[in-house]
Amino acid sequence: MFKKSIIILLCLASLCLMCACGGSEPSSTVRSDVPASDISAAVEAAISSEGLIQVDESYILGRMQIDTAKCSDYVVKITSIGTAIDEYGIFRAADEASAKEVTEQVKAYFERYLASWMDEYRPEEKPKLQAAEVHTEGVYVFYTIMGEADADAALAALNSLIK
Amino acid sequence: MNRKSFCALSLRSIFVIICVICLALSAACSTRGQVAPPPGSASDETPEPSAPAAAVTEEPVVEPTPELSPEPTTELPPEPTPARAEFILDNIVFLGDSTTYGLGYYDIVDDMQVWTPKSGTLTLDMWNYSTIVYPETGEELLLTDILGRKQPDYLCITLGVNGVSFMNEDYFKQVYTELVKAVQELSPDTVIILNSIYPVTDGYEAKGNGINNTKISAANGWVKSVADTCGVHFLNSAPNIMNASGDLPD
């Protein structure tokens, strides 16, 4: 009986270990040397959003309130087409701790954007904002405000380069 | 999009605004001579008979009279007349948000004089990122590209209401200054007028999207500051359409 219990306990422990191994990959497997501009190019090749324009630092600091000093490089693009709100951003933070801070700043940006949304304009675009996503992979922080299919394609493009 | 809902202003309010803009410009011409007619214009060659600014229109005159800040340059003062005011109005291009879009939508001014995005609105810090419908061709172009094609005699800018909910003073002034300087660089002969942001109704404030008359009033001070810094006009038209509570009447 005692032997049987030991075997069962060992089996359970093994099972737990296996499950733990099946979780998210450790961030050390994520590259950190891919320039944001390369990722941006891959993302744009994968999505259907049109008229994307790169914004300058004052926009990122002023409107988005993201601390660019925590990033080694970044690209944020928004659509110039007034009837759409598509945008995405890729930030390569200095380290993983900085990436977490930038991630929180992006989330705060989403909240402010939604709070100031005016329903009388472009109501059909609001779901994109409500479904906005931010992903953190190693030192990279990546966000999208776009349709679901484009957001999925953009994320796949990111992962293809950094994993 | 509900096209009727794009503008918080009533048709009458917009009409009154246009009247006060014309009055202000006309009055400014008579007292300071700062709004120079385009070269070769009829009003350059044939002085119109003199008339008090208050008599240039039969529309209801609203109080107080809008104040147009002086322009740094001085020229011969043309006389304020209805014809003069009409001439100026016909040569103003209006750049702005939904309140400007309404000028064309309600046929207050010719569509050719309205520069707004296709969406019907424009946020201040998007001026260099959001395309504007170039009325001459219907193309959607960035403002800088449009100014490369056309340099208006007068450009009346009404922007900022969509930004007051999230822009602080420094960011607001920085972006607005960049806009004015870009216009000055690309269209140096254009007379630039920074119009004040119009108030919103009490009901609009209740929407809770961060746009309210307290913020608008503060932002109008920022607009004036930008005008002073850049040496362009500030047109304080907002007081002319607000009620005693400082709201736009319903």
**Residues in helix, % of chain B:** 25-40%
Please report which band the strand proportion of chain B falls in: under 5%, 5-15%, 15-25%, 25-35%, 35-45% or over 45%.
5-15%
- Assembly level: heterodimer
Poorly predicted ranges of chain A (pLDDT <50, ≥5 residues)? 18-26
**Biggest interface: chains and residue counts?**
A-B, 23 and 31 residues
What does this structure look like?
The complex is a heterodimer of chains A (163) and B (250). With 163 residues, chain A is an alpha+beta fold. Chain A has six helices and five strands, in the order ααβαββααββα. Chain A has helices at residues 2-21, 36-46, 57-62, 96-115, 126-130, 148-162, and strands spanning 52-54, 71-79, 87-93, 133-137, 140-145. Chain A starts with a helix and ends with a helix. The model of chain A is unreliable at 18-26 (pLDDT under 50). The longest helix of chain B is centred in the N-terminal third of the chain and has 21 residues, at 11-31. Chain B has helices at residues 11-31, 42-45, 82-90, 98-105, 143-149, 169-186, 202-205, 213-230; strands spanning 67-68, 92-96, 114-115, 132-134, 139-141, 154-158, 191-195, 233-236. The chains are: A alpha+beta (163), B alpha/beta (250). The interface between A and B is medium-sized, with 23 and 31 residues.
Notable characteristics:
heterodimer, A: 163 residues, alpha+beta, 5 strands, globular, B: 250 residues, alpha/beta, 6-stranded mixed sheet, two-stranded antiparallel sheet, 8 helices, 36% helix, disordered N terminus
